[in-house]
Amino acid sequence: YGKNTIKFLRLHKEGKKHFVKEVEVCAHLRLTSPQEYLEGDNSLVIPTDTIKNIVLVLAKKNGIPSLEQFAIDICNHFMTTFCQVAYVKTYVQEVPWQRLHEDGVPHVHSFICVPDGIRFCEAEQCRNGPLIVFAGIKDLKLMKTTQSGFEGFYKNEHTTLPERHDRILCGEFFCKWSYGECKDFDFDCIWKKIRECILEAFAGPPDHGEYSPSYQKTVNCIQMLILSRVPQVQVIEAVLNNTFYNVVDMKNLGLTNDKEVLVPVETPYGSCACTLGRKKFFEA
User: Which keywords appear in this protein's UniProt record, sorted alphabetically (predicted)?
Assistant: First the structure.
């Protein structure tokens, strides 16, 4: 049990310059005894309102140095303060506020919300067990207008999809990774590096791009690049929910439409998912 959607803004000031972190937190506990479920005995139950207040107090006292560190702080607090807590899991996601710039000059106290992917993390721990940290990005919308196709796929009497060697590749990307044994990582730096890997693997070189024969191959290329460049990452789960675009037939309007006007196919949409990890992690 626990408390969901604890939303708050943490404001930090250094002279005239302000820093913000707006987050949503979910904190769930499992107690050493299920007596509140089986017997209606609430003597060990930490009220969810108390859980919410603890999260807010930790934000006030410790700040939010990184999403991952804040999730770790929450786990540590419940494990060290309450002997009846057997397991704690914390989820934190961030509202994507970015500092506003005017003529290239960063503003001291103004920000803009830029929906270019939502950062999140999870931390979980069993009593006498290791602290496990996950991080990720979701709702990252990506598109490239060429250098993508889909050919040579299996066909039978139910197949109506034509082969395409040049199409728009567009989708909403979700990625979650595990750090394995949690150490003193620079979580902010790692997250930014992984985001850069995602964009690079999806788009390819800026002058000519990289051909994608399928959504599946693109997802795998993203994961492989992350594993090759970020040694702290052990396992990556990735999901790409596809958005398809159909070319509008304008013959009745007396026009030729050479893939210049397209409409999105809202539903149904395709999806591909892959979990990839280092061999030593799975052997362990």
Answer: Oxidoreductase, Peroxisome, Purine metabolism
